[in-house]
Design a protein that fits this description.
Largest sheet: 4 strands, antiparallel
Strand order of the largest sheet: 6-7-5-8
Structural class: alpha+beta
InterPro entries: Sarcoglycan_alpha/epsilon, Sarcoglycan_C, Sarcoglycan_N
Distance between the termini: 128 Å
Domain Sarcoglycan alpha/epsilon second: 66-186
Keywords: Membrane, Transmembrane, Transmembrane helix
Pfam families: Sarcoglycan_2 (PF05510), Sarcoglycan_2_C (PF20989)
Transmembrane segments: 226-249
Length: 369
């Protein structure tokens, strides 16, 4: 109550909106004697009816009930909310009591494996996140719990193999414990390492409370700073622009000075090349292109009959011809020639125009008649 979040030692978990919410955690020595009020607000999802409840937690010191021997177990087949159930936690403490046999045994801390850097399990085969449970007792550890510290079991743990623990069967029926992650703490042998802080170099003295400046501060005019910030870069840019304009515009040599420094023979040669290039471009615009030879009629080599091209319809009108031929053949003549043996040979002539120039050309010699 009065804070934006829960205390640092208190956690809350709720798997689904329709499952029970669980508040759990272990306070530290700094919270002893300070009552903690948890303000709980809930509303009905259907009617939006709101309810509020205050939960008061009184934290007392555990020095009156010292538990110097502490053991932390990692249970693989449990989630934290399942372990917090009173009957499940009671069964686990009963199994530990049978192995340890202390006079007083209490659960000190319960933490989810995800809060220790564990990974979220895959949603297959009903896998669990795992939970760490720390218990404390007033008697030293039993021989069964000490078996984890044997060199043989430590070697098996380093090879990712399960150690051999004689009392594991007392937990196996309900709890699957990872014995390689068990931690045994004996606070009777721990030496206090607390050292009083001595202020010296590197530690600033307490300066008291922060005092903000008063409202009577004089206003400052930033107009001059603004002008200086804009005027100086603008002046530098203007000077650079003027220098560049003088170099590009006022110091040009010009075409006449270039021609005066160029030899005459080189100018004549350059002019002749330009003139020839211009004439070739003008001629290329007015040239006439004849039909290609592949589009001309073909005569049968034996009978001399006219044969049309094979794929006359496939030609596009956009193709430019290389040669032109006359469709009307008024100058075609057939001159039979008599041989000495009485046979005749038929020779066919036809006039063509190649690029507008008439030409007589012998096309075919027929077979012997």
């Amino acid at each position: 109550m009065g804070y934006p979040d829960r205390p640092g030692w208190l956690r809350y978990i709720q798997r689904t909106p329709y499952s029970d919410g669980v508040l759990y955690g272990s306070p530290t020595a700094e919270n002893v004697g300070k009552p903690t009020i948890i303000e709980i607000t809930a509303y009905n999802r259907r009617t939006f009816e709101t309810a509020r409840h205050n939960l008061i937690i009184n934290i007392m010191s555990a020095e009156d009930f010292p538990l110097p021997y502490q053991a932390e177990f990692f249970i693989k087949n449990m989630n934290v909310e399942e372990m917090l159930a009173s009957e499940v936690l009671g069964d686990f403490l009963g199994a530990v009591k049978n192995v340890w046999q202390p006079e007083r045994l209490n659960a000190i801390n319960i933490t989810s494996a995800l809060d220790r850097g564990g990974r979220v399990p895959l949603p297959i085969n009903d896998m669990k996140e795992g939970v760490y449970v720390m218990v404390g007792a007033d008697v030293p550890f039993s021989s069964c719990l000490r078996e984890v510290e044997n060199p043989q079991n430590q070697l098996r743990c380093s090879q990712e193999m399960e150690p051999v623990i004689t009392c594991d069967k007392k937990f196996r029926t309900q709890f699957y414990i990872d014995w390689c992650k068990i931690s045994l703490v004996d606070k009777t042998k721990q030496v206090s390492t607390y050292q009083e802080v001595i202020r010296g170099e590197g530690i600033l003295p307490d300066g008291g409370e922060y005092k903000p400046p008063s409202d009577s501060l004089k206003s400052r005019d930033y107009y001059t700073d603004f002008l200086i910030t804009l005027a100086v870069p603008s002046a530098v840019a203007l000077v650079l622009f003027l220098i560049l304009a003088y170099i590009m515009c006022c110091r040009r040599e010009g075409v006449e000075k270039r021609n005066m420094q160029t030899p005459d023979i080189q100018l004549v040669h350059h002019s002749a090349i330009q003139k020839s290039t211009k004439e070739l471009r003008d001629m290329s615009k007015n040239r006439e292109i004849a039909w290609p030879l592949s589009t001309l009629p073909v005569f049968h080599p034996v009978t001399g009959e006219l044969i049309r091209p094979l794929h006359a319809d496939s030609y596009e009108s956009t193709n430019m011809p290389l040669m032109q031929t006359q469709q009307n053949l008024p100058h075609q003549t057939q001159i039979p020639q008599q041989q000495t043996t009485g046979d005749f040979r038929l020779t066919t002539f036809q006039r063509f125009e190649v690029n507008g120039i008439p030409e007589e050309r012998k096309l075919t010699e027929a077979m012997n008649l």
